[in-house]
Amino acid sequence: MTRLIPAALVLFLLPALILTAGPAAATEKMVGVVYKIELAADGTSADVTVLDNKTDEKIHVLVDDDLTLDKFKDHRIVIDDEVRVKYDVEGDKKHATYFRKTAGC
Amino acid sequence: MQNRAISTITALAGLLSSLALPPAPRAADASAPADTAALAQKVEDLEHDVERLKKKSLGSWLEVGGDYRFRVDSLRADVAGHADAMEFVNNMTTDLVSRQDPDEIARFMLTQDRAAQMDKLFSYFPGAMATNITAPQAAFGGFSMIDALAGMPADQVTGMLQMTSLTSQQAAILGSLLTPEVFGGVMANLTPADQATLMSIMGDPDKAQLFQQLVAQGLLGGGEGSYAVPRGDQKVKNNTLYTNRFAIDLKAKPLQGITVHARLLMYKTFGSGDDQAVTGNYFADRVGVFDGTLGHVPSSDFLSVDQAYVTWSNIADLPVWFSVGRRPSTGGSPSHVRDNREPPGNGGVPSLLVDYAFDGMTLGAAPDFDSLPGFYTKICYGRGFESGFDRDDDDNIEDTDMIGVALVPVDIAPLRIDFQWNRGMNIFDFPVMQDTVFGDTAPSVNLGDIDWFGVGVLSHFRDAGLTGFANYGLSITHPNDKVSFNAGNQGLLTGDFFAPENPEDKTGWAVYLGGRYDVKATGTSIGAEWNHGSKNWITFAPAADDAWTAKLGTRGNVYEVYLIQDLNLKPMSSYFARAFFRIGYQYYDFDYTGSNNWVGAPKKISELEDTDLALLAPIEMAQNIYASFEVHF
User: What is residue B22's DSSP assignment?
Assistant: First the structure.
């Protein structure tokens, strides 16, 4: 048992440490609560308002990846869900590159 | 009266139209800035009030959901011929009591209340008594052919050797009874003349062998006077078993980053307030209801706490979480496909390896990794049995713990891949159960450790309505040198009843395949599943939602088909509210004994003898036709 726990920790922490390291440069990130989801009529994008947990500021992000759009469509992500978002600022638009419910259970 | 009503309606219409229509331009606009300021103030006040109400409303921090299920099961099974070990022990002790042997009776009465529990084996240490004292004394003490055997001619001895040949179990039991200690005790109880005769018999190898065979046959042979009573092939059935299951799910967010989950669960049979209708001596996971299966095997109308845990997310602004409590370690992926539930997310467990209501904790991380969408990993720990205080003057039972590491490199709708390793430590022989066919049980010994490895792939193609999965599991047992007296001296996947064997690691494997097709237009889903477990396969899934036994623990094959018909009604309470009917059919084809039981070595069912002693009746085939009506809210 005493040898197993450190071994298990190493097994768990190694990939976690490797993969949490080195976030992409020039990318903003935030954790917040989904305030509004406006799906485009053609279903290829969505304008999502997220209430930043830290600043209470409403951030508008453009989501256009199919996996996340599918989650909006079948309600796996809905208003009041807490999400972790990464986005690139492109002119006056914030283009989401990562949009997921915060992990944890 | 009518005029008054008309005038009231007219007045109301006028009032409404004055509110709906834009106000007429006023002669003097000097007061406009003041009005605008007042309106702005009103809007601000309203926003403030809305915010205040939102903060005070339950809906802003508490979600309530749940489900209800009515289900009917129609159960049938074929039991292979065997001899009930409980009946064997009972016959033996009854015979000893009837002989009024004061010493034997005293020993039994000191260790338990035999008068009150004549049909119960599992109380204190009667198992040890039976194997170490009672059985040998009954076997050798009851032997009355010493003189005849001493004078038997050689050709007759040869003939009788063939006539009384032993089964493998009988030979093994005889070997375990013929220890020097036991034999010495038997000799001490004989008269000097009988001792001399017996010694002369033991000097002749053939006669010595025949003596042993006759002793074993007298005890176990199934003939007249034998304590083992052969039971031929039998059929068991329950045409209609109705059950009610009701659950309330609560999810509270009292603080940013903190979530408290609870699931309260009631599961009972129609017309019964206990588990007697669904438990028995067929499978180890359905002998009784215990901590890990509470709420998952029908028992009572009590609303028990199936889950209660708190999760701290976004620790240090990282995608890391810590969660502790009574865990969501039941109904894991991919069992949600058959059960028509939402995927369990990153709190779940692989259902092929674990389905047990654990109290434990998890530390997890879900870093963003472009090439591995949905990646997460976690380390889990659970306590399966808490042994309480250790005492210096006692042979203490250790706590039973499980530790596991999950690695899910990809978790998106079209593809989910998972790897899992678990280790169960200090595995107990029997859980704490009350009023079972074996009486009240409790862990009496730690039998060793078990390692599990698993890998699974799950694909869901939303537009096509197709879901498919494949899972593979490996179990490796590491028995120590201890055996369970209460289980007739069997160890961790080792030994037979009254016939222990040397501990050795055993490896088992299992595969689980399934698919489902959803017809969106009609809300119909059809699915099929198959799983196979090898001879030494053992899982940790007693809380699985199967009436006979956890199908994923089967040493053999299980086939299942089902149809789900959604009522396609408009959801009211949540997006995931639904009501549906489900009908299904399960067919179990058991190759080896002891599915879902880690005590004792598996035996090929087709090779069982009618005189083979078995604690659990060896079911060789089982069927279940089931139907349910379920509402998730």
Answer: P
Domains of chain A: 25-101 (2.40.50.140)
**Cα dihedral angle (B433, B586, B333, B345), rounded to 10 degrees?**
-90
- For residue B13, the surrounding DSSP H or E stretch is helix B2-20
Gap from A91 CA to chain B (nearest CA, Å): 23
Nearest CA in chain A to B404: A8
Tokens representing residue B440 in the block: 């009240």
Distance CA B273, CA B292 (A): 19
Q: Is the ipTM of this complex over 0.85?
A: no
Set of chain A residues whose Cβ sits within 8 Å of the Cβ of B423:
4
**The dihedral sign for the CA sequence B25, B26, B32, B38:** negative
Total-model pTM: 0.85
Q: Which helix (H) or strand (E) holds B53?
A: helix B32-56
Cβ–Cβ under 8 Å, residues B448 and B477: yes
Nearest to A103 among B319, B379, B425 (CB): B319
Angle at B544 between CA B539 and CA B548, to 5 degrees: 95
Find out whether B571 and B611 touch, Cβ atoms under 8 Å.
Answer: no
> Cα angle vertex B396, ends B395, B397, to 5°?
125
Can you tell me the distance from the alpha carbon of A56 to that of B349, in angstroms, rounded to the nearest whole number? 35
pLDDT in tens, B460-489: 998 899 999 999 999 999 999 999 888 888
Task: Give tens-digit pLDDT for B211-270.
Answer: 888 888 888 888 877 889 998 999 999 999 999 999 999 999 999 899 999 999 999 999
Residue among A1, A11, A86 minimizing CB distance to B425 = A1
A54 min Cα distance to partner chain B (Å): 10
Chain A residues 8-47 with a CB less than 8 Å from chain B: 8-9, 11-12, 15-16, 19-20, 23, 31
Give whole-number Cα distances, B459 to B16, B295, B561, in Å.
Answer: 57, 30, 19
CB contact under 8 A, B346 and A1: no
